[in-house]
Each structure stands twice: as structure tokens, then as C-alpha cells.
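Example S7 (C-alpha cells).
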């Protein structure tokens, strides 16, 4: 179990091992608590698709990173088993912010919603996830 009393810096250090999110996509943890997380990324050239928009995979990775933090802090090891993402609007500005909240955090299943917004406040995507904990 990842202790919910760890400092933000300790949680960031633990999740730095999520190399795809942290190194390939440059995602960062801004807030972390039991059932709650905020992650962000600065939009860079490698996040863009051929038409110049932010690649759906980059948006999903940011949302999934927020989910990983929210569902593992203060819980037994947890993995997602089902995710649905809806892309709502094109991203503008230079930064994306994902906020994850637990809808229900049970003993073996958890249900979460992640909202992704750009720095201008436009809702870019919403992901819902079902997670399983051991």
C-alpha cells in the first residue's frame, strides 16, 4: 500500500518510475491524495498529431497517470481494468491539466472520473475507469 501520509515529493518520486508518463510524455503530479489527483503536462511538439492537435494518446496518458495516482494512494495495489475516454474539444494554450476523483472506492473495485482541461479552462476530455485492487 502506498501510504496516504507521504509528502507530495515522496509520491512524485514513487510515480517517477512510470517512465512512459514521466519521461516520454513529461507528465507531472501536482496534487495527490486518497481518491484524488491532479496531473499536468506542457504541450510540446511530440504531443501533436499530423493535423497539429494534441494526440489522443497524449491526453489519455495524462488522464491515466492521474488515475494511477488517485487509485493507488492509500489503497492496496490497484490497476485499471476498463477505461472509456470521450474527447470533447481541441486543446488550446500550452498546458493540459487532468483531475481525477473517486466516484466510489470499494474494497476490490474502484470507480473514477478524470476530467482533462486545457490551461484556459476548456474541457478537453473525460475518462471514466473501473479499477481492481488486490
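Recovered sequence:
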Amino acid at each position: 500500500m502506498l501510504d496516504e501520509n507521504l509528502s507530495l515529493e515522496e509520491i512524485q518520486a514513487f510515480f517517477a518510475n512510470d517512465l512512459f508518463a514521466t519521461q516520454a510524455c513529461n507528465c507531472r503530479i501536482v496534487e495527490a491524495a486518497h481518491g484524488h489527483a491532479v496531473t499536468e503536462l506542457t504541450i510540446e511538439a511530440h504531443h501533436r498529431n499530423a493535423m497539429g492537435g494534441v494526440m489522443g494518446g497524449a491526453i489519455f496518458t495524462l488522464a491515466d497517470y492521474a488515475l494511477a495516482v488517485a487509485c493507488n494512494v492509500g489503497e492496496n495495489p490497484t490497476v485499471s481494468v476498463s477505461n472509456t475516454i470521450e474527447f470533447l474539444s481541441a486543446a488550446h494554450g500550452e498546458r493540459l491539466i487532468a483531475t481525477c476523483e473517486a466516484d466510489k472506492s470499494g474494497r476490490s473495485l474502484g470507480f473514477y472520473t478524470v476530467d482533462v482541461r486545457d490551461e484556459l479552462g476548456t474541457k478537453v476530455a473525460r475518462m471514466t475507469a473501473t479499477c481492481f485492487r488486490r
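Notes on this example. Strands lie at 28-33, 36-42, 78-87, 95-105, 109-118, 123-133.
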